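[scheduler] slot 2 assigned
[scheduler] job type: sequence-to-structure, two independent chains
[scheduler] chain ordering preserved from manifest
[runner] begin chain α
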Amino acid sequence: MSTLIAIGAGVAVLTGIGAGVGIGIATSKAVEAIARQPEAEGKISKALLLGCALAEATAIYGFVIALLIILFLK
């Protein structure tokens, strides 16, 4: 049973990989957009920060679920 708990926690933590990739892609696209239209930097930065915050929140949720799996399913 402890093996399945460890596997479940590992899968839950994998959301961090998706969040990291998503934030990296979003940042690269935002830099490209700012390079093409410097006058729109304010709007692009606001959208980038909101998107990064939401992506990071999913990684934190995955981490919390992993901790809950480990602590409560022992």
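[runner] end chain α
[runner] begin chain β
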Amino acid sequence: MSEKIYCIAGFKPKPGKEEAVFKALQALEPNAHREDACIHYTVTRQIDNPFAQGTSYPIVFHEIWASREEFEAHCQRKEIQDFFAQQVEAPDGDIEDANVCVYTDEPWNFDAPKV
């Protein structure tokens, strides 16, 4: 059975704050990469492309964690808590809105072998 957790965290910067938000999110990457359970942790920004014209928040984190518990432990780190408090929740933060979702790659009713 796969225990991996996939997280997509989208961020909508306040007008004129796109570059500042991207840089602030990039600053979170090095310490997250130091966590043993971190499989993938990369912040990206939306670009124009005629073959992909969907709508989304313009800045998105793509994360893969070894397990739900380890993802939740990551979310409790002071650096992550401080980022959300200062940038998302505070009225003077640079982020207008955030949308954080987690996913699994395991299908419903998967009959994983017991080992």
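[runner] end chain β
[qc] chain β: The first strand starts at residue 5 and ends at 13.
[scheduler] slot 2 released
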